[in-house]
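Hi P.,

Sorry for the delay on this. The queue was packed all week, but I finally got your sequence through. Input first:
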Amino acid sequence: MDYMLTEEQIMIRDLARQVAEEKIVPVRAELDEQNKFPTDIMKAMGQADLMGLFIPEEYGGLGKKVLELCIAVEEISKACVGVSTSYAANALGTYPLLLYGTDEQKKKYLPDIATGKRLVAFGLTEANAGSDASGIQTTAKLDGNEYVLNGTKQWITNGIEAEIYTIVALTNRSKGPRGASAFVVEKGTPGFTFGKKENKMGIRASSTTELIFSDCRIPKENLIAKEGMGFIIAMKTLDSSRIGVGAQGVGVAQGAIDESIRFAKGRIQFGQPVTSFQAVQHILADMQTQTEAARALVYSVARAMDSGAKDFSRASAMAKLFATDTAMKVTTDAVQVMGGSGYMKEYPVEKMMRDAKILQIYEGTNQIQRNVIALDMIREVSRQK
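Then the structure:
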């Protein structure tokens, strides 16, 4: 379908596709097998200006918007969701600064993020705070001109690889979620260490580790916005970044379709290519229709966000939900189309199916997305009365 992309958006798409095909595809199996972070690829994306795609020009970025970022994420995800997770998580960690950071904080951190010199991670999740983000236990207590952080963050993408971290911690436990605040923490700060690196089913190219804070002192100036804004910052960040997970779903689904068609065209059974059988054609037709519908929704929501829509929580939740459920179904169908070969690590669809699963889980499980959507629908009807 023609999504009326501008010449500049097409250029970004083609650039991301080139990086994916030249830098990612040749090593994606190795990265997966070795649980290896794609350091060289991240540097290459920095050199191609993809790391600064969404960062304003005054801070060294290209000043593009959500749709452009989704287009890049989609192309990278066609090749490897593990790599695209590392790339997208960098944006996730940056959003608190973009949305709520002071000009001084932006000047200090965004230029290095834009060039890819320093990676970012977002620290919200804890052992007892996953879908229920309000359950965080990490604390930040003001002591003179410093905040003292104590606690552990779990399953943090870009974990040990990042150098800048946006962390949500409680500054007033008695207020619950309203007592949470957001901070910038830099790698190397005394009292800030790392726990185990997780051994995951999929997205193994991405680094997932614990962040441990033990009397970690950071300057008072590292507070983002003001005390008590942490939960709002986290939710607005996830609303803004969730559409990128939808783009990942579209990308891995399209990648699986392309791989399965290439295989099926060359697979001869009963004297003819597998693609000549109507049963296979129907599976392929459904795969592409579902993926195209997901892409249309993701692009539509991205454009609405770029146009200045104020409340897009429901829309971003729908895009994430539909595109990632589609990714899981399409990658599973791709394995089925390829039969026994699809189940083998020799072919990439096996990895794509494993990678797709996390998209239904992180940045809010798809069950939580359904809650968000339904509650907003109910509130809207109540307002109409």
